[in-house]
Design a protein that fits this description.
Elements: E1 5-9, H1 21-29, E2 32-35, H2 38-47, E3 54-56, H3 62-74, E4 79-82, H4 95-103, E5 107-111, H5 116-124, E6 131-136, H6 141-150, E7 157-162, H7 167-178, E8 183-188, E9 196-201, H8 202-211, E10 220-224, H9 236-248, H10 251-262, H11 266-276
Parallel strand pairs: 1-4, 1-5, 2-3, 2-4, 6-7
Antiparallel strand pairs: 7-10, 8-9, 8-10
Bound molecules: S-adenosylmethionine.
Length: about 280
């Protein structure tokens, strides 16, 4: 008997229509659906007239349920994993289950769909060629500031999930650590009635959110513009030299040598190289 397949099924992040035909088919055809919160998932299933049996798999019973699910798969039954909203494993349970299934040679099949981070990113108007997904910002000020300081020079666009209870504190820390001019996008209640996407320099975004309690409600994603090196301060000769050296050497080494020759900042050259060469 061949083993069953584990389907990782993305579900809507608000608007129930944001689910793929394939996801609906799979949810209707598998033997069992493993859901983070069965009451929540049953609302979705009812909407699509799906009557597949659901079992709860959450942080508190994950290990025990994981063993049962793995046995179910070995018994030849197909399982779909869903979370409360969006793509499982993206700040949601499922990682250990997937690792174990992979290790046992069980087939894991992704059924792609909604993900708040990607939905926010594609409407934010910030560079999407490189981005760094960071999950939730730490809840405590010290941890949050450490995290933001560590990302200060990050040239890629940075994506965070944020809780409405912490949005003001987080924006204050973003202003303090990254400066009030850094562009930040607040993407709130995506795909829902009060969907709001606002892009402003950090200081102005903080003032706007502070002045309107509605902006402190609901589900939200914060997207922060990457660190921009000021290439205009770098002499053209230095940029030309960097380009020549970069063809022969790792960027770090090429930037260090160019910085030595022209007496300019190594980090600015390195950032320029990452972004433009
Ligand atoms: N797995 C989900 C995904 O694929 O996006 C994320 C789960 S995480 C536990 C929940 C967080 O995602 C929320 O606190 C919020 O930061 C973000 N989120 C989920 N739905 C959202 C929405 N409709 N609009 C904005 N952010 C959302």
């Amino acid at each position: 008997m061949s083993s069953g397949r584990l389907f990782i099924v993305a579900t809507p992040i608000g608007n129930l229509s944001d689910i793929t035909y394939r996801a609906v088919e799979v949810l209707g055809e598998v033997d069992v659906i493993a859901a983070e919160d069965t009451r929540n998932t049953k609302r979705l299933l009812q909407h699509y007239n799906i009557s597949t049996h659901c079992v709860a798999v959450h942080d508190h019973n994950e290990q025990q349920k994981r063993q049962w699910l793995e046995q179910t798969l070995r018994d030849g039954k197909d399982v779909a994993l869903v979370s409360d909203a969006g793509t499982p494993l993206i700040n949601d349970p499922g990682y250990h289950l997937v690792v174990h299934c992979q290790a046992e040679g069980l087939q894991v099949v992704p059924i792609p769909g909604a993900c708040a981070a990607i939905a926010a990113l594609c409407a934010a108007g910030l560079p999407t060629d490189r981005f760094s997904y960071q999950g939730f910002l730490p809840a405590k000020t010290k941890g949050r500031q450490d995290k933001l300081n560590a990302l200060k020079q990050e040239p890629a666009t940075v994506v965070f999930y944020e809780s409405p209870h912490r949005i003001l504190d987080s924006l204050k820390d973003i202003v303090a650590c990254l400066g009030e001019a850094r562009r930040v996008v607040l993407a709130r209640e995506l795909t829902k009635t009060f969907e709001t996407i606002r892009s402003l320099p950090a200081g102005e975004l903080l003032e706007w959110v502070q002045s309107d309690a509605n902006q402190q409600r609901g589900e939200m994603v914060l997207i922060i513009e990457g660190h921009k090196s000021d290439a205009s301060e770098l002499p053209q000769q230095a940029l030309d030299t960097l380009k020549v050296l970069k063809a022969e050497l790792p960027l770090k080494k090429a930037a260090a040598l160019t910085a030595q020759i022209y007496g300019v900042k190594k980090n600015a050259l390195y950032d320029y190289g990452l972004n433009h060469l």
